[in-house]
């Protein structure tokens, strides 16, 4: 029997066709390009960070296993990956390295054709050789291709140093809300959700941004400690206000000597009509942070290294974590300072572990010698030859291990008198008990555990019976007044302790003007 279409059937089929057509067209409606350069640059450190130091992701590697990418995928958004370059904190980035990343991103963007949105995965404290503000350069070039109508959303580490001009190129900004950091993935997901929401509802988000003239080390900006906790607790409340999308507080990165270094706040309005509300909220938050500036303090005991060692040996049955804060690898310092090791040996301690010293040559010598062998080495003091010097030691190789993010970087554990010394072939710090386990070490079996950190990262914080921050010299000196700043804006607290300031004097972004 032949199937005959009557008028009604034709209408139903047409409706189905149109609605299916629309649905599929709607699902694939948005194109979002993604790029990222995530680096915290310590400008005091005499080391130029190059492409070899970065983990560089391209194509499908960028989106693989990423919650933000899964979300966009589920929403039917076409994600166009370019390049994501990620590196732990270290010295400023070489010009050619940055330009190589940037040009690759821009070339893919040009070939990709028009996009609706851009998701940038940044740290915020990027500093590049020869560039006053490389992040500004990046966003200006992106805008040149994408035009003023493309929505740009960027996620950041809260230790970023953010300039007003850079903000002018962005529509949406979202920063981590935890330090020590626990919410990197959550922040990236929140950022793309806001981007999708803006695209979906045809919002044109606008940003209120205020640089606050406060320079503090991250150790005074721990988000679980008051008064910082209460300030961060306000962010989700502000974000939920009618017409607002998100709010961020940047603690900033004080070891990058740049004009824009320091704290800042941002509030994202969904459109120009709500920018005034965003501005009011940003100013209130900025003023409250300013009022609390003298209460932003360390949450742990601090001492000189000799005092810290003395305090620890007084309680031999307990474990005391001592952070070598001036040589804090997680703030981009050298990680090869020998001062703490030298002082522990001078005090003839009997039960200490030191993580660690970054010295690939010394690791090679240990690997060549093998486990159980006695070695004579000159360790450390190669990158940090300013506050430190190489130290001659004799020790027995206890253990060899593979460290680093992909477990491919050799390391060695040596017994040097009463000190168990961990040597790294890459610039890394053990921030979690799992890392110590990899090197065959139970930190709680020692009286003294030295780590090259400032604040203890969460995993170590959770197990440390006691922590003392040793105020050691180095490229991440906690006493900012002791650093020689040439570029940071002045006046700034605490370098100019008596200065006055009010947020109302600051400029607020009117959206993407580039
Ligand atoms: Zn950070």
Describe the biggest sheet?
A: 9 strands, mixed
The proportion of residues forming helix, as a percent range, comes to 25-40%
Strand content: 15-25%
**Overall 3D shape:** globular
How many individual β-strands?
A: 20
Bound molecules: zinc ion
Overall pLDDT confidence? 93
Low-pLDDT residue intervals, each spanning 5 or more residues: 1-26
- What is the terminal-to-terminal distance? 66 Å
Structural class: alpha/beta
Rounded radius of gyration (Å): 26 Å
Main sheet: strand order: 12-20-13-19-14-18-17-16-15
Helices, by number, come to 14
Give the helices and strands, then pairings.
Blueprint: H1 7-27, E1 31-38, E2 41-42, E3 55-58, H2 60-63, H3 67-74, E4 78-86, E5 90-91, H4 95-112, E6 117-121, H5 134-146, E7 151-156, H6 164-167, E8 172-175, H7 184-200, E9 206-212, H8 228-239, E10 244-250, E11 263-269, H9 275-291, E12 301-303, H10 305-313, E13 320-324, H11 339-346, E14 352-358, H12 360-369, E15 374-379, E16 391-403, E17 409-416, E18 419-424, H13 433-438, E19 448-451, H14 458-463, E20 466-470
Helix pairs in contact: 3-7, 4-5
Bound molecules: zinc ion (ZN).
